[in-house]
Amino acid sequence: MIEVMAESSGNILAVKASAKLTDADYKDTFIPKLEEVIVEHGKARLLFAFDESFEGWEPKAMWDDASWGIRHLNDFEKIAMVGAKKWVEWGAKLDAHFMKGTLKTFDRDQLDSAREWIKE
Fold first, then answer.
1. How much is the pLDDT for 99?
2. Structural domains for the chain
3. In a designed cystine with 103, which of 88, 96, 108, 117 is the match (CB 3.0 to 4.6 A)?
4. How far apart are CA 32 and CA 27, in angstroms?
C-alpha cells in the first residue's frame, strides 16, 4: 500500500510504503501524484518511507515502477529513502547512477533527518 504523507507540498512528494505494493497503488496513487508534481514544478523531490510491514512489490507493480522510472530519470532533484531493506537500497543505488538527481538513504529512525534533507 502507498499512502501520501502530510509532508507532501510544493515539489515534495512524501509517501509511505507498507505491506506489498500493487499495480493499483502505482496507477491510482503514486504515479498520478508524481506526475502532478513534475508538471507543476518541473522536478520532484521524493521522500519514500518504508514501514516495518513492507514486503516488496507485486510483479505488475515492479514493472510500473521500472517502466515509469526509466522515462522519468531526469525528473527528480532528490530522493530520500527511509527504512528500506538492504536489497531495496542496493537496487535504488544502482538506479541512481542513471539519474541526474541525488539519492540518499536513511535508517528508519532517521525520518526527521530525511525530511530536513529533502527540503534543503
1. 80
2. 2-113 (3.30.750)
3. 96
4. 7
**Residue position matching grid coordinates 522515462:** 71
Strand partners, 80: 47, 104
- Determine the Cα–Cα distance for residues 24 and 33; give it in Å rounded to an integer: 13
Contacts of 73 (CB under 8 A, 6+ apart): 98, 99, 100
Cβ pair 47, 5 in contact under 8 A: yes
Dig out the grid coordinates for 87 from the structure: 536489497
For residue 75, the 8-state DSSP code is S
User: Which backbone phi and psi does 7 adopt, to 5 degrees?
Assistant: -70, -10
What residue type is 113 in one-letter code?
A: S
Residue 101 main-chain phi, psi, to 5 deg: -75, 180
d(Cα 53, Cα 95) in Å, to the nearest integer?
Answer: 24
Q: What is the pTM of this model?
A: 0.92
State the amino acid at position 93 in one-letter form.
K
Cα 101 from Cα 16, distance rounded (Å): 20
pLDDT digits (tens, 9 = 90+) for 46-93: 999 999 999 999 999 989 888 898 889 899 999 999 998 887 887 787
